[in-house]
TrEMBL record:
Transmembrane segments: 29-53, 74-102, 122-154, 201-219, 234-253, 265-283, 298-320
Organism: Methanococcus voltae (strain ATCC BAA-1334 / A3)
Pfam families listed in its UniProt record: ArsP_1
Any single Gene Ontology cellular-component annotation: plasma membrane
Main localization of the protein described in the UniProt heading: membrane
Family classification: Belongs to the UPF0718 family.
Subcellular location: Cell membrane
Protein name: Permease
């Protein structure tokens, strides 16, 4: 089906718009049309499926599940639950705060916070459309591993003293009653959630694809940006990760840009490191976290996650060289 979409985009560009696919503008327009159709189609399917699964894990149930598990099991469950929860780092923070208030170990809460924005149904759908099953699955597994190892390390460092005192002083509230949903309720929830997510992210999506289309059609391989992130620069992974921190976006807006960069010769691991850092590390996230944790812990979180992302990018570059 994805090949058919590419052919359909080619037909529109050549026969209806009278553009050459070899020209910069024709190449850009073809990239834009094909990616918009592919990404929106797979996005709706994946978001609906995962939203149905998400209906079984409201915040109250998520807290109860995490309270049952300690040690490595807790980190693993937190990372896995991060897959089916909000896919923006800033929207994950309220849940993260709730976990700390509920007494869930600090390292476990960070496993959730790290994985949640990196791995989600939206990112998987776009990676699947763009790079295929192998990259999409490996990216998902990598995101979970980063969350588990990052949370374990933060837990071992015993950094509870860097959580603001008022968080621990908040009384543990009586757990809210979990409402059991029927099959019809869950389907309706999935439909509504799919529409809500599409409404929230379509602008990021269009902007990201538009930037990717311009890079695809107009940015020459010898340009400074491509050389900076290219295989000849031994520090490209570090640069990609650091540059991404001031940028606040989600995976939807960055994957098309990563796709275009890869098409220009940037190694896949470097492009994915940029994407991971953009979604998992951002200045707005740091500002929100500062309300509940101290700068020392924020710096540790950013440092551990950055190193993990760089190593993951290196793995992708080696495997897909």
């Amino acid at each position: 089906m994805l090949e058919f979409i590419d052919e359909f985009a080619n037909y529109l560009v050549v026969n209806l718009l009278n553009m050459s696919l070899s020209s910069p503008v024709g190449s850009s327009v073809q990239f834009f049309i094909a990616d918009v159709i592919k990404i929106l189609l797979l996005l709706m399917i994946m978001v609906f499926v995962i939203s149905y699964v998400r209906s079984y894990f409201p915040p109250e149930r998520t807290k109860k599940i995490l309270e049952k598990y300690m040690g490595v099991q807790g980190n693993i469950f937190a990372s896995l639950l991060g897959i089916v929860t909000p896919f923006c780092s800033c929207s994950s923070i309220p849940l993260f705060i709730g976990f700390i208030e509920a007494g869930i170990p600090l390292g476990v809460t960070f496993s959730f916070l790290i994985t949640s924005p990196i791995v989600n149904e939206a990112a998987f759908a776009i990676l699947l459309a763009t790079f295929g099953w192998e990259v999409a699955l490996l990216y998902t597994v990598s995101g979970v591993v980063i969350g588990v190892l990052g949370g374990l390390l933060i837990g071992k460092l015993k950094m509870e003293k860097y959580v603001e005192e008022y968080v621990y002083e908040i009384r543990r509230r009586r757990p809210a009653k979990i409402k059991e949903l029927t099959f019809k309720n869950r389907v309706e929830f999935a439909k509504q959630n799919t529409m809500d997510i599409i409404k929230r992210v379509w602008v990021y999506l269009i902007i990201g694809i538009g930037i990717g289309a311009v890079i695809h059609g107009y940015l020459p391989p010898e340009s400074y940006l491509i050389q900076l992130l290219g295989p000849e620069n031994p520090f490209a992974l570090i640069v990609a990760t650091i540059v991404a921190v001031p940028i606040y976006s989600n995976a939807l807006g960055t994957i098309p840009i990563a796709e275009a960069l890869i098409g220009k010769g940037v190694p896949i691991g470097t492009a994915l490191a940029f994407m991971m850092a953009t979604t998992a590390l951002s200045l707005p996230e740091a500002i929100l976290l500062k309300k509940v944790i101290k700068p020392e812990l924020i710096a540790t979180f950013f440092g551990i996650t950055s190193v993990a992302i760089i190593l993951t990018g290196l793995m992708f570059n080696i495997l897909f060289a």
